[in-house]
Amino acid sequence: MNRTHFWHLVKGLVYVQVLAAVIIAGITFNPNRGLTQLFDYALALMKTLHTAYGLNLTIETAETVFSQSSIVLASPSPLVPPGVYGWLRVFFAGPEDMLFSHIQAMANVQGSKLDSISKSENNVDSPPQAVSNDESVNKEEAADLKGTKLAFYCTHNGESYRPDCGESRLEGEKGHVNLVAAALQAETAKRGFTSFHVKTVHDYPDFAASYAESRQTVRSLLEKHPDLAAIFDVHRDAYPQARPDSIEINGKSAARILIVVGTDERKPHPNWRKNAEFAQVIYEKGETMYPGLIKQVRFKAGTYNQEFHPHALLIEFGNDQNSLSEALYSAQLFADILYEVFKEGER
């Protein structure tokens, strides 16, 4: 046998052995367990790195940030076991994609200490500092609104803003919408209203019973303050979005606002048109003062506890991709609008 034939024989034997090894590995390898373990190792490593940098992250938060902070890992695959998001795409991610993902995740979580959000019932006792807007508030006129009472509460307390805390919703905790409600109370009080912010959690432990729970809050408010001029249920857009819903007002970015009015389509709500009229007055005043800030008045089948008061409305401040600062700025602008509405006699 000459040397050429010998080397062909050796290579053939090697190929056969490699093929056999691949077949055996394919038979014995459990992709679900192996890939799940790989993903778990990645999450554990991410948590270790975050701890080293002083970031207090749970494994659930790490999974959320890891899987949703990059377009590479954005959508789950139906072929993958639960909890393993888009693993196939990981192998095709270029270094620039993974670098972007890690930088964005670090920025989102590290940039927010969430000092005002905890499991304590007192996590919004100190509302955020009201943004100064002295030009829009006349103190002598503001005094005339002392008898005008407003109330703010959140049916879905867990709703939050992803850019500031890495999650759209804080299960069992108070999310950023509570800070928006607190800001509304502070801003309207600064403009002369007598304002209340109810901090009761309504969406935990039973999210499906949120509106049943907040109904008790509304009833309690009206028992204590039957002369309330308006009641506002503060939310953000409930559906996850790809980009923030923002508008520039006076050189600053603000979260756009949606007013929701319930109708009598599902259950008796004979006076819902009074809520609609109030919403329309606010919308029109908003268009005069800050065009485009309030997107629209939207009518939905459901009462949303608005049947208890002719000036009860649900208001959404942006979506989960807006920043908290945008929502707080919108709260300031919305307080301006309410000031003008009630100053003109909507009591």
Q: What can you see in these coordinates?
A:
This protein is of the alpha/beta class. The protein folds into 2 domains: about 5-110, no CATH class; about 135-345, Zn-dependent exopeptidases (Aminopeptidase), CATH 3.40.630. The chain has 11 helices and 8 strands. β4 (about 245-250) and β5 (about 250-255) form a beta hairpin. α2 crosses α3 (about 60-70), α8 runs parallel beside α11 and α10 packs across α11.
Number of strands: 8
CATH class of the largest domain: Alpha Beta
The shape, in one word, is elongated
Following the backbone from N to C, one meets helices and strands in this order, namely: HHHHHHEHHEHEEEEHEEH
Order of strands, widest sheet? 2-1-3-8-6-7
Question: Which CATH architecture of the largest domain?
Answer: 3-Layer(aba) Sandwich
Largest sheet, in brief, is:
6 strands, mixed
* Straight-line N-to-C gap: 106 Å
Q: CATH superfamily of the largest domain, please?
A: Zn-dependent exopeptidases
Which regions are unreliable across 5 or more consecutive residues at pLDDT < 50? 46-135
Gyration radius, in Å? 27 Å
* Number of domains as seen in the coordinates: 2
Overall pLDDT metric: 75
Share of residues in strands: 5-15%
Given helix and strand content, the structural type is alpha/beta
From the structure above, extract its key features.
single chain, 347 residues, alpha/beta, Aminopeptidase, 2 domains, two-stranded antiparallel sheet, elongated
What order do the helices and strands come in, and which of them pair?
Layout: H1 3-28, H2 31-52, H3 59-68, H4 87-90, H5 95-110, H6 139-142, E1 149-153, H7 162-165, H8 177-190, E2 194-197, H9 210-224, E3 228-235, E4 246-249, E5 252-255, E6 257-262, H10 272-289, E7 294-300, E8 312-317, H11 324-343
Parallel strand pairs: 1-2, 1-3, 3-8, 6-7
Antiparallel strand pairs: 4-5, 6-8
